[in-house]
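Problem: given the chain below (347 residues), write out its structure.
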Amino acid sequence: MLVPPPSTLLLNRYYTTEFFSMIKEHLNPGGVFMCSPGSAQTYFNEESLKLNSSVFNSLKVAFANVKPVAGNKLYFIASDKVLSASFCRLTEQQNIKNHYVSSDYLADDLTERKSDEIESLLDPEMRQNSSSFPIAYNYFQLYNLSKDLNEKVPAIVLLILLFATPLFAIKRKNLIMYFSASALAAFEIIVLLTLQLTVGNMYQLTGLIIAGLMAGLAIGAGSDFSRVTPISIPVKSIILILFYVLAASVYGSIIKTDSRFPAICMIMLLSFIPAFITGNIFRELTCESRTGNHIASVYSADLSGSAMGFIAVSGFAVPAFGTAATIYFLALLVFSGFLFGTIMNKH
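Solution.
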């Protein structure tokens, strides 16, 4: 497999237990699969060991034997047959003529010893990498930060400032807009990730999902429904919270759906509902006043909340806690807006 390491949520899918099991199904009996989660090093720090252990343990779910081999990258070779890193001996046995993979350049005993040394460092208890819990992506990001400790603290401080500054600048009555928009933006990332996992990397369908979400926002914000308008913002917030809780509880079933068409329909429906409610909350907040300053402040809360949701979920929450737990976290975000923006807001 010649793809980059799990440096993004999209690339992470090629290093999951689900993907390795699918590979196993397509291999001939005793076939060999190889991938590379990162570079081979003389010294493996804690973060790189977590990354490699997660991918190694994921391969062990599908294959009886997995062997690490250090070269210009760290390669994992997997098969149900017994594996060997004595490449020079194997090429001679099979009468394969090579210039560089030969005893003139390589020593089988050193290769085997290095392979055993790396395997002894890997943690068999490390969590496996899966589609619903892309932990390898999280370890890859931590590994990148560990390369330069002088950048780690400033990066964390900068992220905190980016999140905190808009939050303190937003009026309390607009907090529900901030957190609702944040949850919706985060949910959009999760929905697109789910589409890629269940259907594939299909750009037309990706555009369709985004269009459905934007349509929900537009209809919710631009239409006056007689049965929806009388409902207060706190009640709409509770409905939004219940939706995210329900979405988190059924997420496992959605991602395991084998049929593409039902999966697409379900994903589109899940995109439209929170977008419609969030758009309607925007409508209610902006209809309270006709002044441009008030509308601008609500729109500012909407945009800043969306930015926070995009970054927090794709860069931190999903890889660190898993997809289902992150959706529950979105319900908590909306509850924060409900609590501090409506219940505790006396102005």
